[in-house]
Design goal:
293 residues, six-stranded mixed beta sheet, 5 helices, globular
Length: 293
């Protein structure tokens, strides 16, 4: 793989939409918004988690095989053409059916020449009320990836991955300048909670930016699907957690912002969070026998 020089800045775009039962319509709408992002100057465009289907894991059991696609497949065919024609990088989260018949919650990165890069498969898979993902997705099996694209070097994680700081740190140590988090998260409409899920969702991702000195871009969906109300709020923050742009809570939106990647090095050098790590004290993190009491 050709290693590209790090750029001083890059303009990124996030595509936040509502989703219907019509896969073709969802794809057509997303294609239009990718072009809108490119028209606004975005060189890297990220779609939301499971961009072309409703969030089906809110049901404990459902026949969803017809919703899955292969890689390469419909999504990669369409977006590879757009990437090549528009000269942009596109991050495409898909419900993947692998060659061995397993199902994954995945993301494909397509470089600006239309080349499909390695697939990232969601590593941390939740199993909670209305988020029954373990019933549908096998956990990712290929580790955390860093993509060296024409415009920037970055990593992609998917939704529940966002709650795990270890993943963000590993991606940073492997050279990522931006962490993208395509997401499908919202509130359960008939279940009151004292916990502010929305604030926690944004805070944890901004914390990854601060702790690692990297930019973070999180994209979520909007609209009501079954018992879930997705809160949108896609955002892009700098390498010390300052929110540069934030999308609506309810409306479809294309969010575009320019990132100063030189700031990453300044934050990393001045705060020393990476330089002053103590890996010799972190052994417990990889001990699978430890139980929380």
């Amino acid at each position: 793989m050709k290693i590209t020089q790090k750029k001083d800045s890059v303009t990124v775009g996030l595509v936040q939409t509502s989703v219907s039962d019509d896969i073709s319509s969802n794809m057509d709408k997303t294609v239009g918004k990718v072009h809108d992002a490119a028209d606004e100057g975005a060189k890297i465009v990220c779609l939301q988690e499971l961009y072309r289907t409703k969030y089906f894991p809110q049901e404990e059991s459902k026949d969803i095989g017809k919703l899955a696609e292969t890689i390469p497949g419909d999504s990669t065919k369409i977006f590879s053409t757009i990437a090549r024609e528009r000269g942009i990088v596109i991050i495409v989260p898909v419900f993947e059916r692998s060659q061995d018949g397993n199902y994954y919650n995945s993301a494909v990165v397509i470089d600006a020449d239309g080349r499909v890069m390695d697939t990232y498969r969601k590593t941390h898979v939740p199993f909670d009320p209305l988020f029954y993902e373990k019933n549908y997705f096998k956990p990712g099996d290929a580790g955390y990836k860093v993509y060296k694209t024409k415009y920037a070097t970055f990593s992609v994680f998917i939704c529940y991955d966002q709650w795990f700081p270890e993943a963000a740190r590993i991606a940073t140590l492997k050279g990522a300048d931006i962490l993208f988090y395509p997401t499908a998260i919202g509130l359960i409409k008939d279940m009151p909670s004292d916990e502010d899920w929305r604030d926690g969702w944004e805070t944890i991702q901004r914390a990854h930016a601060i702790a690692n000195g990297v930019h973070v871009a999180a994209v979520n969906r909007v609209g009501e699907e079954g018992r879930l109300k997705f809160w949108g709020g896609s955002f892009i923050c700098d390498s010390f957690g300052k929110v540069l742009k934030k999308a609506s809570d309810e409306k479809e939106e294309v969010l575009v912002a320019t990132l100063d990647l030189n700031e990453n090095r300044r934050i990393q050098e001045s705060w020393g969070f990476l330089r002053n790590r103590r890996p010799d004290t972190y052994g417990l993190l990889s001990d699978t026998n430890v139980k929380v009491e």
